[in-house]
Queue: 2 jobs
Job 1
Amino acid sequence: MSGCCSGSRREPEQGISGVPANTVSAGIRGEAIAVKGGETFVGTHDPVISADGEGPERRISLQDFHLEVETVTIRRFAQFVETTGHVTESERFGSSAVFASLLGDSSLATGGVIGTPWWTRVDGATWRQPEGRDSSIDDRLDHPVTHVSWNDALAFARWVGGRLPTEAEWEHAARGGNRRRRYPWGEEEPTDETIFCNIWQGRFPDTNTLQDGYFGTAPARSFAPNEAGFYNLAGNVWEWTADPFKVRSLSKQAKARNEHAKRFSDKVLKGGSFLCHKSYCYRYRIAARMGLSPDSASSNTGFRIAYDAVAGKDDGP
């Protein structure tokens, strides 16, 4: 997968083999919903982007679990950092991937991505300063935290006594159970005028009409939740899952993609982001997916937390 939908490091780890995780559960769990498991499925028999491994549909059995209603916000992540002293990988690397149009000062761009000029590397871009120096999080503490890698997300999950959801759990929650639907809200297609979530409206990447009210991220509880009660499972920010990325196909293209994914230890992300549009990155569908290396981070990548169900309890963790 190229960096078309989210920034990717796509380079050796430069001596950073992972982020030390605080394994002591000390954080406060977020509001979560109990999800009934059982026989269900993951993927689709009607893939739109076959190269991503959206199909075939696969039957699977899930245990009951809980999933937080929203992505982890900047406010919660700040509490985690204040308590544990965690340093994110973007901070360690000294830069992160930023959607170039978010920059108020184009001189901050320090390196582009071949084939995707809308992505640029920005020195100093982190969860604290999402667009680099002079940017602030003061007015968006209720927005999803961004510029966090899979390793950072895993460290936070351990801190609250949770974990990252599997791809199957994420899809099961987004569909509201064992039923087929293209989007968390049903089958109706979002358009530049019909708004269900925070995605791009207009002509990407030149014109965003802002019909949904947001150019970048929206608050984690924006728009109507799906029937199960989960917010923003389509659009806003990509969400890390626990699973390694793999394309289930015998084609030469799939084999090459899998070799690449194995080399970089790519992980699955779900849900699409505020940059998605049907004409460009039609990945805000439930079955859509993307793979990135676990040290990658960008201005449109976040996460939410899952928990194992506790025997005898079904009212949330």
Job 2
Amino acid sequence: MTTFDLPDLGEGLTEATLLSWLVSEGEEIVIDQPIAEVETAKSAVEVPSPYAGVVKTLHGAVGDTLIVDEPLITVDTGDGADVPDGAGAQPYREEERAGTDPAAADEAGDTDDEGSGNVLIGYGTSSSAGGRRRRRKGDGKGSAVSEPASEPAAAVPEKALRVSSPLVRKLARQHGLALSSLRGSGPDGLIVRADVLAAADAGDPAEAPAARDSSESAPAPQSGAGAPAPGGLEIVERTPVTGMRRAVATKLSQSRREIPEATVWQDVDVTELMQLRAKLKATSAEGAPSILAFVGRFVLAGLAKYPELATRIDTDKSGEQEIVRFDGVNLGFAAQTEKGLVVPVIRHAERLSARGLHTEIGRIVGQARDGTLSGKELTGGTFTVNNYGVFGSDGATPIINHPEVAILGMGRILERPWAVDGELTVRQITTLTLAFDHRVCDGGTAGGFLNFVATCLQHPAGALADM
């Protein structure tokens, strides 16, 4: 038997919702056959099997939240050997196991007879489903080793808790729950997120930590709806930060931590651009590209002049950094969906005209809102454009989409008084904002790029003639 865990989904994603099983128990499958459809924080994807054989167990029901490295499917590969949970997914774990010391593992007692040695955070591996687990000395928590199932429970008071992931442990800490007091509902008593939330909702005082000082300056932690909060307010709801919301929070927090960000902005007269679009709508059978498509086209021309803003910073293990430049631009467009903010990417966008960008933007943004984009189209961006003007905002300070080094934001277009040739008149004005990573360039480059894009928007016909 071989158990295949949910593989790394990329881009920092740690969980997925099971949408459907594409195979059933007892069915014979082949290598790379899709076995399940899952929805990550970014898109719906099919998971292929790295093994051929007969499906013995499907770990999870439709609608369940699955955690990366948690068992997904058990397959009878016909080799007559039982492979423990997590040990079978070797094609997906080469990076995780890189640098391990086999000699040290042997010294600690990990042998082929006892288990895979591929110990996962939160739970260990064993040689059989019937074996018990205990903590190994050394790290306080350690990995799991086998011992006979017949040994009395009292003889193994330090038996390892079966917890689906570090996220479940963290959630338990946040709710003040002791994992040892929880009963797992997962396979073989595995403690999953639902178990922690159920215990938190029950609000059992026995599971809460020792009470702290009850003074207002150090209120005791509370859990559950209706619990008193500082200032006398009542908590009416707790919503776990999960899925796309957590993915967005993680990426934006990482951006703020790692990038020394600076911001420049400029008001732009786009009256001529609006007139050009109106003329194209009236005279062209193909209609007119959107404002966002024109902005994208001018941004790409600007990046050709100021390529520093479409690079990335690579940091090696010693802390040394390199600025990496690419052959082309993968242009991302921030899109608001029902599940949160995503940034679908147009690859090699520099090859497209304004009309081509218009078509691609419509396609990727539409699919992003439908949740049908592939993971490939949500990764690999080198520059992002964010049109927050559609939400009624005049301006903002956009956060760089890590690991990119710059993002251009655009506010709404408003009629404002504007001086033209010494005369005050009413023009259509928008505000462009550029946030950039000060490690890759200085204000001169950022300001030059922003002014170039602004000039193109002010005089679009002349700018397009040179593109």
